[in-house]
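User: Hey, quick favor. My workstation is busy. Could you predict this chain's structure for me?
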Amino acid sequence: MKFPKFMKPKTLFSGLSVAGAIGLFAIANGSSVSADTISVQKSTDDWSNGMMYFKKDGVDSWTDYVLLKLNGRVVFCLDPWTEAIEGADYDYNNSKYTKDVTNLGKGNVPVDEATFRRLELIAYYGYYGSSDKRDWRAVMTQALIWNELGYQPTKFTGDLTMTDFENFKAEVMEKVNNHQAFTSWNGSTQQIQKGQTIELTDENNVIQKLSIPSTQDGYTFSLNGNVLSITATQDAPKESKTFTFTSADTSYEGASLVWYKWGSQTVGEFKIKDGNSGSVSLSTQPVEDANEAEGAFYLRKTNTDKEGLAGVEFEVFQIQNDGSEKSIGKFKTDKDGLLTVEGLEAGKYYVREVKAADGYKLSDKKIDFNIVAGQKASATTATLFQNERVPVIKTDATNAQTGTKAVYKFETKKEVAHLTNLDIGKTYIVRTYENDRDTGKQRLQVQEKKIVATAHEMEVEFEYPVLEETIGHWSVFGEELLDEEGNILASNFDWNNDRETVYNRNPKLNTIAQVNGKKVTTVGEDGKVSDTIKYQDFEKGSQVFVRLEIAKYGTDEVVGTYETTATIDESGELVVNAETLNTKDLPAGKYVLFETVFEVKDGKPTERVISKERDNKNEDQSFEVVKPNEVVKSNKVVKPKSELPKTNTAITGGIVVAGVLALGAAGYFVFKKRNHKVQ
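Assistant: No problem, here it is.
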């Protein structure tokens, strides 16, 4: 199967094979075979569908979003002016396309080796090396590759915009340009003792691009912004140890493959040459053995359940003879919550918590302690009081009856508050409130419930009715967790949080009534009533119960009724043929059709009205029944003309007929004569 080219005014951009085949990148494992098969598929992210527009050399081009793969491995297009032909026989063994990158593909795209190396980095930082593998990121990566090859993006449609592209480009190209940058402390040597934590600040802002392990060889590592924290555990070796951090996943290192097929476009399966961008070497050296130190200090950190808390950071201060304070260093508790500070000289000290464990409040308590000369590492033990948890509250808002994200007026909304990190036995107040996103009005409805925590994680449910003022709008819920005194412990509110958002449906009907496909019928005629109903803001695929009523025009007097069950399909349009409604026996006059739509639950209609149309003067819903002697022209009623005077009826009538015929004949000859002159 052939796919159109990338449009150059009248031809589709092959760039992604089929109007732009975006390659969702999947790296080969190093072993490939010739005669690989190419395939094309539409983007799988509904919201990423759209078009990309480009300009090169004054020529506008465009393409839509699709995926290009080789035997399941996603690749990127390198010559967008060439057709992509689906099928086998893609080969990478041709030396022209694996060794010589100075002229890639049949589209004569000049790419020198330096540019090709940048394409490798763009593919890596844009897609391969990202934890986000959604289609939109691959789309932007392909656009950035084309941009590097000289095609300037001018417009994106669907949910992607030029602003999205410019932001993406800035993010990726910064990483590409800094691929070989190093941290400011690269190659430095740091001294550290067991239990101690040191912090290294990277003034070059490279550290965030590096892959940092959480633990390695007796040390733990954590990153906060451009600060790397390193802690020596009790298992840290005495000998010096060097660590090197890199920015690349080694699985993406190796040789890139350029795939070629005669008459088809060329595609790249990219890898990067090295992963040493931003490398840093760290050497750690422990101080003297603890047993040779003059003293040691211990404490144990727990929560309210008496469980040890790991990773709690403390700072130790020594009180000098003049009363001043000297920081000895920062230390962290181990997996059991035990803090050990060894090698302390005799004197007065205190310790305070400077960083709490995740999910816990920071303690403001200070513990004083003394070190006696000659004291060994087993003499002093202190226990810090338990830390309170920092609770978290999040919610989900749905239709209480269906679990969907849309609700009719007669239904209710369910707000489920998810509470985590509670202290067992403590009393809390859970508060949720409704906000109107369309108007910006807040706290339209507020509900509260008091609970006693029986577990660290709990759920509390609320139900909210649909307010009339919110019909047709989006409701966004917020939530707060308070203590018994009314102090807010945790809160959560975001206008754009889809989890907390529900749409209040505004269903409407637009109908056209007819009899035998017309707006006019005659008395005694077999007249079958039909109603074409267009549904707006109804739940697609749902069943409804429809009631049609014939009433006298301008009144609410019903003269006929028909009921049926129907399903709202994707078109949102339904033609109801009312088999039991017939105008045959209706007297002459004008009539109007009423429609009422009811909810269907468990296959049975209810009395809950979803929507209705009862305008007794609605022309679209009206029709007429006329007398037999009335003439119907163009679906309109024409009353018969009055008779001529009865005086001398026969004579007068004959004269009139004769006169009309004579005038007609005269007119004919005049017309023919004039017509002849024109010719």
